[in-house]
């Protein structure tokens, strides 16, 4: 996550591996809203995002809410974050009324994130 082009923007970049093995670069731009803890996502006016504090190094926890759904996401710079990070995330999501916990298998090499 990095500062965006304006003081009220945050930019999150990732390289996501698809099931066919290809790495797809992704970029999300979040806009800070004055007087609110919600972030709006550029290009997704129906979606709101909250960022949660985490003691996990290199990690970020998000809650995304849209029309009829909410999901919690844990992103980390490492493809294998410490188990304590995953446990902290699972504890937080269970307190926030999450019904299911999915752990995506991390058995492939990490995608390389190219710099812009």
Automatic annotation (TrEMBL):
UniProt key word Secreted: yes
Gene3D superfamilies found in the cross-reference section: 2.40.128.20
Keyword list, A-Z: Disulfide bond, HDL, Lipid transport, Secreted, Signal, Transport
Pfam families for the chain: ApoM (PF11032)
Residue runs in coiled coils: none
GO cellular component, one term: high-density lipoprotein particle
Alphabetical list of SUPFAM superfamilies matching this protein: Lipocalins
Family the UniProt entry places it in: Belongs to the calycin superfamily. Lipocalin family. Highly divergent.
Complexes and interactors: Interacts with LRP2; LRP2 mediates APOM renal uptake and subsequent lysosomal degradation.
Entry protein name: Apolipoprotein M
Species name: Octodon degus
């Amino acid at each position: 996550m990095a500062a965006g082009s304006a003081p009220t923007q945050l930019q999150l970049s990732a390289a996501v591996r698809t099931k066919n093995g290809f790495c797809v670069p992704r970029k999300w731009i979040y806009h800070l809203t004055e007087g609110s803890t919600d972030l709006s996502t550029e290009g997704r006016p129906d979606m709101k995002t909250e960022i949660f504090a985490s003691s996990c190094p290199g990690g970020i926890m998000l809650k995304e809410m849209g029309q009829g759904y909410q999901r919690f996401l844990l992103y980390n710079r490492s493809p294998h974050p410490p188990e304590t990070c995953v446990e902290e995330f699972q504890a937080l999501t269970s307190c926030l009324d999450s019904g299911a916990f999915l752990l995506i298998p991390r058995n492939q090499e990490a995608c390389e994130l190219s710099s812009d």
